[in-house]
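A reminder from the course coordinator: this example appears on the midterm review sheet, so study it carefully.

Given structure:
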């Protein structure tokens, strides 16, 4: 049996969360580590002065999420959806090789989900810089790891993560708009 396929709610959750974290730029740019990037954080084959349409970016994201999900499909059990989404976002952000070498992945392989969820916040460095420090220009990675941790532990739903990231209005904001 094949586990952790990228279908239904997990696919939609991964697209929403990863898309929100990555943002979307149709023109290539250099990320904080100096890597040429486009769309939702795609780096493979990206060079200066490239541009893509919304549709091309959407196709790249779907394809890339499928690729970055491969290590999770090799686990011999089904991850809870929240854990799957958090681990997939981690894989998308850092790459499948980093995931496969990580203690987080080793804990997932050992069915130690609680231990795996505690590993996300260890990954707060970009190009050798500690992103927890003021002036690092990479503090977003700290927020990303905190949200991945909270998703993984079930303290945060996908909807709540999107509200925190400013991609959805909270229920109280919607009620305020309706009443006024």
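Designed residues:
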């Amino acid at each position: 049996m094949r586990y952790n396929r990228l279908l239904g709610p997990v696919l939609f959750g991964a697209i929403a969360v990863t898309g929100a974290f990555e943002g979307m730029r149709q023109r290539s740019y250099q990320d904080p580590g100096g890597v040429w990037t486009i769309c939702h954080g795609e780096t493979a084959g990206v060079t200066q002065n490239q541009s893509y349409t919304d549709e091309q970016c959407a196709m790249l994201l779907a394809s890339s999420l499928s690729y970055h999900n491969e290590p999770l499909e090799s686990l011999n059990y089904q991850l809870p959806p929240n854990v799957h989404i958090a681990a997939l976002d981690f894989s998308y952000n850092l790459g499948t090789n980093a995931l496969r070498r990580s203690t987080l992945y080793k804990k997932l392989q050992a069915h130690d989900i609680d231990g795996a969820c505690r590993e996300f916040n260890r990954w707060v460095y970009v190009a050798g810089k500690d992103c927890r420090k003021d002036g690092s220009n990479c503090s977003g990675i700290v927020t990303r790891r905190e949200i991945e941790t909270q998703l993984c532990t079930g303290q945060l739903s996908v909807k709540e993560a999107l509200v925190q990231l400013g991609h959805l209005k909270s229920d109280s904001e919607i009620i305020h708009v309706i009443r006024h």
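The chain has nine helices and four strands. The radius of gyration is 17 Å.
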